[in-house]
Amino acid sequence: MAVPAQLPAPRARRVIARREARWGLLFVLPAFLLFLAFRFGPALAGLLLGFMDYTIGGDAEWTGLENARRLADDPVFWQSLRITAVYTLLYVPLTVAASVGLALLVRRAFRGVGFFRSVFFLPVVTSLVLVATIFSWVFSSGGPWARVLGWVGLPDDSWLASSTLVLPALALVGVWSHFGYGMLIVLARLQDLPREQEEAALTDGAGPWARFRWIVLPQLKPVLFFLLVIETTASFQVFDLVYAMTGGGPARASYTLVMALYDQGFKYFDLGYASAIGVALFAMTLVVALIQRLALGRDK
User: Fold this and answer.
1) Which of 72-81, 138-147, 249-258 has the lowest mean pLDDT?
2) Residue-level pLDDT at 57
3) DSSP per residue over 271-286, as a string?
4) pLDDT band for position 146 (cuts 50, 70, 90)
5) How large a percentage of the chain has pLDDT more than 90?
6) From CA 77, how far away is CA 85, in angstroms rounded?
7) 104-125 burial, b for 16+ CB within 10 Å, e for fewer?
8) Which of 68, 153, 231, 255 has the fewest CB atoms within 10 Å, counting from its CB?
9) Average of pLDDT values for 87-106?
10) Closest CA to 246 of 168, 143, 144, 150
11) CB atoms near residue 132 (< 10 Å)
């Protein structure tokens, strides 16, 4: 990458920077084209289909806001929205709390800390279908969880067969399978924090909770915002866990928004209405993320 020697040094650096930028764009171009073809393209197509009446093998007919009116009048949509909101309220706080708590637990070096970090992260890389199969047995009427409840005098019925307890059961399984990812992110941030402030607070007699509340937690705000956004998005889009464990039952007590989208699109082949559900889901996720940004992320 030769540069004429007569060029001034600042200009020569600019020429080299432009050439490096062009080469960088050339190498990035294939991935960018794949992103356009398989991510942005389908997203745009789904947005357009949300304003159409379209089934597989039929002609697409522009209907404007008709699908939105169908959503407003569809009790199944509102039921699935309520179920998704309840699942989110159960899943997100527990996942964030477990991630932060376990990151604090394995923050300091001690014998075997690498083993514990690996064990805590292991559920993230475990097949979710396998997880769903195992926990379907755990929460069954004759499973370990029912036996433990029976030993302490509580009802030993299957949680997955209860309209009241099925969402807490699914949320617990979701937390177990995802907290390791959040723990890893929080741990990376904790290891970058300077220890001087905590040591000074310890010298002044501050306890563990005071040090965490006034020193560590404010510095975790950006990480907590990131965790809240990705976990909220994951909870809004929960499907495979519900599909494998309950299929939306019992009596649609775990019938989430993505389950409704799946049924409309792949069971009834009403792709226009399914796309409208997807657009509504995206809009709600975006609004919740903006609210979280205002509440937690205004500093950074």
Assistant:
1) 138-147
2) 73
3) HHHHHHHHHHHHHHHH
4) confident
5) 38
6) 12
7) bebeeeeeeeeeebeebbebee
8) 153
9) 94
10) 168
11) 19
Cα 229-235-184 angle, rounded to 5 deg: 55
Average pLDDT, integer, range 64-75: 90
Residue 81 contacts residue 71 (beta carbons within 8 Å): no
What does DSSP assign to residue 125? G
Q: How many CB atoms lie under 10 A from the CB of residue 205? A: 7
Tokens representing residue 255 in the block? 């019938």
Q: How buried is 203 (Cβ within 10 angstroms: 0-12 exposed, 13-18 middle, 19+ buried)?
A: exposed
pTM: 0.85
pLDDT in the model for residue 14: 81
d(CA 147, CA 144): 5
Give residue-wise pLDDT tens across range 115-144. 888 899 999 999 888 999 999 999 988 888
93 by Cβ neighbours in 10 Å (0-12 / 13-18 / 19+) ranks as: middle
- What lies within 8 Å, CB to CB, of 252 at 6+ separation is 76, 79, 80, 83
pLDDT at 295 over 90: no
| Three-state DSSP state, 170 | helix
Whether pLDDT at 103 is above 70: yes
Query: Strand, coil or helix: what is 55?
Result: strand
Angle at 85 (CA atoms; ends 265, 292), nearest 5 degrees: 110
Instruction: Name the token pair of 247.
Output: 């299929």
The total of other beta-carbon atoms located within 10 Å of residue 199's CB is 11
- Which long-range contacts does 68-72 make (Cβ < 8 Å, 24+ apart)? 68/276, 68/280, 70/273, 70/276, 71/276, 71/277, 71/280
Give the torsion sign (CA, 93, 96, 99, 105). Answer: negative
